[in-house]
Amino acid sequence: MGCFFSKRRSSQKESPPKGAEEPPKQYSWDQREKVDPKDYMFSGLKNETVGRLPGKVAGQQFLIQDCESCNIYIFDHSATITIDDCTNCVIFLGPVKGSVFFRNCRDCKCAVACQQFRVRDCRKMEVFLCCATQPIIESSTNIKFGCFQWYYPELAFQFKDAGLSIFNNNWSNIHDFTPVSEEVNWSLLPENTVIHDYIPPPTTSELQAVRISTEANRSIVPVTQGQRQKNSDESCLVVLFAGDYTIANAMKLIDEMVHLGFFLIQTKEVSMKAEDAQRVFQERAPEFLQLLDKGPVIALEFNGDRVVEDCQNVVKEIFKSTQTFVSQNKETASRDIDGFYNFADIQMGM
After folding, report:
1. Helix (H) / strand (E) containing 123
2. Of 182, 217, 252, which closes a domain?
């Protein structure tokens, strides 16, 4: 019995010597790398070119404030970005998981990719935008919008890290919270606008290490017409179902159709259920029901004379072994487009 109790005593936790301090407990959050807010802020700068390289922001929040005549480039993904009281600045913001909020800014030129975009108390801005939701302006005037077009090798991965789809871009669907009768507070930039003229690549040796292109045909985000006036009364809907090369196939189809002289109006990436397919694809829905469980679909709207016929021919040539939905004729194309995008807007809370 004595042996039994001796083992029991030896297994008990020994008390520290009297007067000795216990070491502090270690928690998981104590072992995280400390974040210095100054590393995620540009403040009070004038006539400078500054930025952050890929991997240097890594999903943190960022603040830009009180800058004048600066060129600012954030070549990374972030959580949210607020831009306050900036004047005459060029600003590029890589993918932002949450919101981008401009307040009290003047004469700024910006390229932005984000989930939510808002402008308040701003004047005279040109914004090249990719926004997953409806952009909002408030108490602002002379705000002009164009479609985001930019490339560098890390950008596609940053979109994924930020949870953004390159195909969900509502850049031209602006909501003005404070409209003024007989005045227009916002407009769309001309179709032939060259983004390089507004937001040139950086000139510092550090930031030039990022291999940038502003050519439309290299843009990670497809360049769309948005709500500009269509060039033809004929449009065509193409829906690509999830597979190993869906994104690559969508981009290849866009390249082919634009090369033929057609216009890409809008794009969307969204998940569909069986009842959604019945409503959108109607009598052709049974062809696609088994494909819906594989992942989201990508929809593309093209516009131009003879677009339905030429699009059908291109799809047959490129996607011989890939299942796609293509409008069957000019008469049903409008129904297809309205049906799909009405569904998609409801799905995305638009």
Report:
1. strand 123-131
2. 217
Reported pTM? 0.87
- Scored b (16 or more CB within 10 A) or e, 109-123 reads bbbbbbbbbbbbebb
* Domain ranges, residue 92: 39-217
Among residues 45, 91, 49, 90, which one has the least CA distance to residue 68? Answer: 45
Q: What percent of the chain has pLDDT over 90?
A: 70
> What residue type is assigned to position 211 of the chain?
R
- pLDDT tens per residue, range 91-107: 999 999 999 999 999 99
Q: Which helix (H) or strand (E) holds 268?
A: strand 263-270
First to last CA, the chain: 76
Residue ranges of the binding site for GTP: 98-99, 115-118
Write the CATH number for 101.
2.160.20.70
Domain count for the chain: 2
User: Which residues does the annotation place in the binding site?
Assistant: 98-99, 115-118
Residue-wise pLDDT tens digits, 19-49:
556 666 666 545 556 777 888 999 999 999 9
